[in-house]
């Protein structure tokens, strides 16, 4: 890991931008910790895959994006959704399978989307997103709207043919795309050190004629800087980039995973590497923000998540009439 | 074989798209003597069935085409010759006719094709058959086209030039009807006559086309030798608005077919092909808008007729003939106006031979 | 004005007219132009069978050649459709669905439902189907039923040039994902096609021929086979009504049921393999909803439960023909309880 404390970008962010980044990361963390607790309580149906620990990646990348830009996500998608501006209240309701959810209770945790925010959906298919992102990037290039499209995918998807095909296509079409490989160490219960043939996923970039970058995924500023370069290059017509973000997820593959395959890496990460702790230490030490400001955000986020759960629990489930709607625009 | 006493009754070409006809029933037999104009045989085309009036008179020596046979346009159906002509000569004509059918040569003759002409920014499709005489121009109704004159144009064109055209928004003409008003449509008809160099014509109009030619006569009376209005729009207030609006709105065979039945006294005349052809027309880009626009010319918001044709004709000094199908359900014939033939609204299809007689 | 052009020309014309009308329409696929990066001509092929020929130069930047990466470019078409374009992607052979199906059935087909009605994905996948070109087992299949099974997809199978143009225009204008299946044996078959643009609505079967004795529902190339059979049968006094569904999803069950209620007999002709097929699906629908009208068991005329063979002697046996259809019709007509 490179020493990122000296990363120049921290000085380029305004206090408001820093506060926003912290707020978004904190929202993701609170959201995921709460879903973890609620799932254990038995109120949440289906399966959920939590993003806690990985917040710096979603927020570090998405803080460079605006309404022109689109992202595709993974089964572990809550963080990407929040980072791209999807309403956490609607998300929580969706996870509860309620009619007030982002997708009216028809998608669930793995399919939360908000196309109005350029969020193309969490995706239940590993490797499903990269081809879609080529298309979104193509659409932006064709329309000349300056938009950039970002595919988030995991170390598991880094072994999928769809990902390889998309990396190749993005280069030969010179697409404004960024591919973010979130290597949290495990595809389900299989270590990426075993499943990925190269030392690093970023090594694969060379095979597809694009730059490959490795960043410390616990460091918001490192991700922010690498993503900033990649997004700017894409926007300027310079083509795609592959960024490998390395970190550890705090929970199992899905909720209920006993995680017998893991050692004590989570405890260590939570104690020593955590992105929120490092962010707070850095911005308070540099004097850019105060603990009081950050504590206020914590309280605000806590209230938001509390409200999201209360509203989700109180909301009605979709009814029989909803079963048959929304299959087609017209049929 | 060039015995001029031998005459042939051939498969007629009823409309541009007719390639073959199916013999349904003969009304005459070998040995009968017929006069020109007698009904001789019922023929079914893929669009509609009609009765062929004999173009010749004399003794029927041979009937070649058996009921059920599907034969190309131009195929010899029967041979007419006086009894003095030897059987062997008649049979030679029969053999020649059969050989012509078998060779497939008849199918290849496409016949005259429609032309395009620019009229005041509109591209108008038309077809002229025949030559000489004072020209006749036939103008179709709402949602119709030049092919609706299929049973009329050919027989009428035996001794004069007969032109059919597609109004804007219809048939193969462009689909921009502008404001779709009667004046606009009449202006196109007048401009069309000018574009073709027709100084003066007998105008025949069906339904909306009747009102259009009345408006044309009012605007340019010197160009009009006579007006024949067939089931014209604008007589009385009553109209089958459900048909008119339904026709404009229909997008499927299931919606359209029951409506089309109302056009005819005999609903069985609505064939699969007729429905199909109309659907093909209605699917063209721009037709929806064209029909919706013209509909506003035809109907008031209260679903009564918006046109007053007698008012248009006031002071127009040309001969006017009005003919109605007595079973017209679309524009019910008003009492005391015009003549009647046994037909529904599509009298020029259903009672074509009567209409041809009127026009001759 | 209508004039006679081929099925191939009709498809090309539909693409050209829609690209002319709507700048958001783009075309992509393997060798849709051809010759990219090569020393020779650009637009060298215009698609493997020349269907897209000429569009590359006419619409600069809007005809995209792709690498042989069906997942990536079919997925890219889907993604672009969510981003305001109306892409028409060519999956060269329907058999190649195996290397990109996820993007079609898990992504494009499900967005609208999964996302609670908020997604619009106007993508068209043009693909070539059917047997008869001696192309053997991996280039000859009739996999329409697989797509038809998936909610969220529309599946179109034109049987003639007129329908090909009007249905492709509708496919491009349609806001849902459409699988537009072109039968490879029909590309050179000509028919009357208007020069103007027109759209044929989905879910409206074409009654190709009217008749009162038996209903034949036939799909794609089988429509012409059924017409041949019907002509022959008419000479022995059996009148067939031929229904061409044109789109198999949505399927115009009303027209099929109405026809069977009239005739009391049904023959379904589909060159696909017989199990879990369009033929069985249509038969099941009629058995369920028009059982009381049936005067004879429903007859299915399909390919056998085998891959499509290569040798012409075998492929000719595989594909239903007019004689087999006529035989099935006779079986239905001769049936006595």
Write the layout of secondary structure elements.
The complex is a heterotrimer of chains A (331), B (360) and C (337).
Chain A (H helix, E strand, L loop, with lengths): L8 H4 L2 H26 L14 H8 L7 E3 L5 H6 L4 H8 L33 H15 L5 E6 L6 H12 L4 E7 L2 E2 L2 E2 H4 L16 E5 L3 H16 L5 E6 L18 H9 L1 H11 L5 H24 L17
Parallel strand pairs in A: 1-2, 2-3, 3-7, 6-7
Antiparallel strand pairs in A: 4-5
Chain B lengths: L6 E4 L9 E7 L6 E2 L4 E6 L4 E5 L4 E6 L6 E3 L3 E5 L6 H17 L1 H4 L6 E5 L2 E8 L6 E4 L10 H7 L5 E4 L16 H14 L5 E6 L1 H12 L4 E7 L10 H9 L3 H9 L10 H12 L3 H12 L10 H5 L6 E6 L13 E3 L5 H4 L1 H8 L1
Parallel strand pairs in B: 11-12, 11-13, 13-14, 14-15, 15-16
Antiparallel strand pairs in B: 1-8, 2-4, 2-7, 3-6, 4-5, 6-8, 9-10, 10-12
Chain C lengths: L1 E5 H15 L3 E5 L25 H4 L4 E3 L4 H13 L3 E8 L7 H8 L2 H4 L9 E6 L14 H5 L5 E3 L4 H13 L4 E6 L6 E5 L11 E4 L4 E5 L3 H14 L4 E5 L2 E3 L3 H11 L2 E5 L7 H12 L9 E4 L9 H7 L3 H13 L3
Parallel strand pairs in C: 2-3, 2-4, 4-5, 5-7, 6-7, 10-11, 10-13, 13-14
Antiparallel strand pairs in C: 1-8, 6-12, 9-11
Give a brief outline of the structure.
The complex is a heterotrimer of chains A (331), B (360) and C (337). Chain A is α/β, with parallel strands linked by helices.
Characterize the structure shown:
The complex is a heterotrimer of chains A (331), B (360) and C (337). Helix content of chain A is 43%, strand content 9%. Chain A contains twelve helices and seven strands. In chain A, helix 9 links the parallel strand 6 and strand 7. The radius of gyration of chain A is 19 Å and the shape is globular. Chain B is an alpha/beta fold. Chain B has helices at residues 87-103, 105-108, 150-156, 182-195, 208-219, 241-249, 253-261, 272-283, 287-298, 309-313, 347-350, 352-359; strands spanning 7-10, 20-26, 33-34, 39-44, 49-53, 58-63, 70-72, 76-80, 115-119, 122-129, 136-139, 162-165, 201-206, 224-230, 320-325, 339-341. In chain B, the strands form three sheets. An eight-stranded mixed sheet of chain B has the order 9-10-12-11-13-14-15-16, sandwiched between helices. Chain B has a four-stranded antiparallel sheet with strand order 1-8-6-3, with helices on one face. In chain B, strands 5-4-2-7 form a four-stranded antiparallel sheet, with no helix packed on it. The mean pLDDT of chain B is 92. With 337 residues, chain C is an alpha/beta fold. Chain C has helices spanning 7-21, 55-58, 70-82, 101-108, 111-114, 144-148, 161-173, 222-235, 253-263, 278-289, 312-318, 322-334, and strands at 2-6, 25-29, 63-65, 86-93, 124-129, 154-156, 178-183, 190-194, 206-209, 214-218, 240-244, 247-249, 266-270, 299-302. In chain C, helix 1 runs parallel beside helix 7 (161-173), helix 3 (70-82) packs parallel to helix 4 and helix 9 crosses helix 10. At the B-C interface, helix 8 of B face strand 9 of C.
């Amino acid at each position: 890991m490179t020493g990122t404390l000296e990363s120049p970008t921290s000085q380029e962010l305004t206090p408001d931008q820093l506060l926003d980044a912290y707020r978004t990361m904190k929202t993701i963390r609170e959201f995921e910790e709460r879903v973890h607790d609620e799932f254990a309580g038995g109120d949440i149906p289906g399966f959920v895959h939590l993003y806690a620990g990985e917040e710096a990646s979603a927020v570090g990348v998405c803080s460079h994006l605006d309404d022109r830009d689109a992202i595709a996500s993974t089964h572990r998608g809550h963080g990407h959704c929040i980072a791209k501006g999807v309403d956490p209240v609607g998300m929580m309701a969706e996870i509860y399978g309620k009619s007030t959810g982002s997708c009216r209770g028809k998608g669930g945790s793995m399919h939360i989307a908000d196309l109005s925010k350029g969020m193309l959906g969490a995706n239940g298919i590993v490797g499903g997103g990269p081809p879609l992102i080529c298309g979104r990037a193509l659409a932006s290039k064709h329309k000349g709207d300056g938009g950039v499209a970002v595919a988030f995918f995991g170390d598991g998807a880094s072994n999928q043919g769809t990902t390889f095909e998309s990396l190749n296509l993005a280069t030969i079409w010179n697409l404004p795309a960024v591919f973010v490989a979130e290597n949290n160490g495990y595809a389900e219960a299989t270590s990426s050190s075993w499943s990925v043939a190269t030392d690093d996923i970023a090594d694969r970039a060379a095979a597809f004629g694009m730059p490959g970058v490795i960043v410390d995924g616990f460091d918001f500023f490192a991700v922010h800087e690498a993503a900033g370069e990649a997004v700017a290059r894409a926007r300027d017509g310079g083509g795609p980039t592959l960024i490998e973000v390395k970190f550890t997820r705090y929970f199992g593959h899905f909720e209920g995973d006993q995680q017998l395959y893991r050692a004590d890496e989570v405890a260590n990460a939570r104690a020593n590497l955590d992105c929120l702790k490092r962010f707070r230490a850095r911005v308070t030490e540099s004097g850019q923000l105060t603990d009081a400001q950050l504590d206020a955000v914590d309280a605000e986020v806590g209230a938001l998540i509390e409200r999201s759960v209360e509203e989700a629990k109180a909301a009605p489930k979709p009814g029989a009439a909803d079963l048959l709607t929304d299959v087609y625009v017209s049929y | 074989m060039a015995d001029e006493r031998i005459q042939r009754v051939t498969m007629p070409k009823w409309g541009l798209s007719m390639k073959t006809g199916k013999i349904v029933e003969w009304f005459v037999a070998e040995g009968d003597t017929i006069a020109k104009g007698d009904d001789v045989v019922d023929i079914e085309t893929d669009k509609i069935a009609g009765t062929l009036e004999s173009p010749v008179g004399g003794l029927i020596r041979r009937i070649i085409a058996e009921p059920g046979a599907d034969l190309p346009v131009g195929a010899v159906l029967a041979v007419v010759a006086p009894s003095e002509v030897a059987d062997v000569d008649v049979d030679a004509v029969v053999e020649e006719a059969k050989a012509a059918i078998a060779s497939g040569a008849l199918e290849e003759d496409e016949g005259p094709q429609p032309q395009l002409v620019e009229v005041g920014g509109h591209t108008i499709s038309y077809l002229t058959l025949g030559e000489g005489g004072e020209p006749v121009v036939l103008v179709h109704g709402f949602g119709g086209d030049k092919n609706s004159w299929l049973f009329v144009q050919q027989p009428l064109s035996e001794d004069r030039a007969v032109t059919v055209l597609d109004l804007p928004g219809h048939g193969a003409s462009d689909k921009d009807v502008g404001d779709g008003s009667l004046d606009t449509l009449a202006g196109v008809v007048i401009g069309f006559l000018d574009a073709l160099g027709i100084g003066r014509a007998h105008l025949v109009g069906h339904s909306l086309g009747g009102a259009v030619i009345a408006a044309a006569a009012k605007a340019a009376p010197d160009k009009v030798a006579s007006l024949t209005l067939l089931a014209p729009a604008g007589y009385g207030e009553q109209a089958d608005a459900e048909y008119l609006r339904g026709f404009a709105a229909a997008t499927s065979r299931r919606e359209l077919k029951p409506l089309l039945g109302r056009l005819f006294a005999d609903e069985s005349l609505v064939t699969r092909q007729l429905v199909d052809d109309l659907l093909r027309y209605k699917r063209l880009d721009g037709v929806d808008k064209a029909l919706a626009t013209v509909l506003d010319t035809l109907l008031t918001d209260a679903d009564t007729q918006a046109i007053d044709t007698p008012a248009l004709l006031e002071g127009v000094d040309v001969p006017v003939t009005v003919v109605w199908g007595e079973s017209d359900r679309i524009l019910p014939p008003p009492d005391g106006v015009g003549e009647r033939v046994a037909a529904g609204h599509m009298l020029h299809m259903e009672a074509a031979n009567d209409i041809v007689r009127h026009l001759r | 004005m209508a004039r006679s052009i081929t099925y191939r020309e009709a498809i090309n014309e539909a693409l050209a007219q829609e690209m002319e009308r709507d700048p958001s329409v783009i075309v992509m696929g393997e060798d849709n132009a051809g010759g990219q990066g090569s020393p020779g001509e650009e637009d060298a092929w215009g698609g493997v069978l020349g269907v897209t020929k000429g569009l590359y130069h006419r619409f600069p930047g809007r005809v995209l050649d792709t690498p042989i990466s069906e997942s990536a470019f079919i997925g890219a078409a889907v993604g672009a459709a969510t981003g305001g374009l109306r892409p028409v992607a060519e999956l060269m052979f329907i058999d190649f669905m195996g290397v990109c199906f996820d993007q079609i059935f898990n992504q494009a087909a499900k967005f609208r439902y999964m996302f609670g009605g908020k997604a619009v994905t106007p993508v068209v996948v043009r693909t070539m189907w059917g047997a008869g070109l001696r192309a053997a087992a991996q280039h000859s299949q009739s996999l329409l039923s697989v797509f038809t099974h998936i909610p969220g997809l529309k599946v179109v199978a034109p049987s003639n040039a007129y329908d090909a143009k009007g249905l492709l225009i509708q496919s491009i204008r349609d806001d849902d994902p459409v699988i537009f299946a072109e039968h490879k044996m029909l590309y050179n078959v000509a028919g009357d096609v208007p020069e103007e643009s027109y759209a044929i609505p989905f879910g409206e079967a074409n009654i190709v021929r009217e008749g009162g004795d038996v209903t034949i529902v036939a799909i794609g190339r089988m429509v012409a086979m059924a017409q041949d059979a019907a002509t022959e049968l008419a000479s022995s006094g059996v009148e067939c009504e031929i229904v061409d569904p044109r789109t198999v999803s949505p399927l115009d069950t009303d027209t099929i049921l109405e026809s069977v209620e009239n005739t009391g007999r049904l023959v379904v002709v589909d060159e696909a393999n017989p199990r879990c097929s369009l033929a069985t699906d249509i038969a099941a629908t009629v058995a369920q909803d028009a059982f009381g009208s049936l005067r004879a068991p429903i007859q299915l005329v399909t390919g056998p439960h085998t891959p499509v063979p290569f040798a012409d002697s075998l492929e000719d046996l595989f594909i239903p023909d007019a004689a087999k259809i006529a035989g099935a019709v006779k079986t239905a007509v001769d049936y006595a309880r």
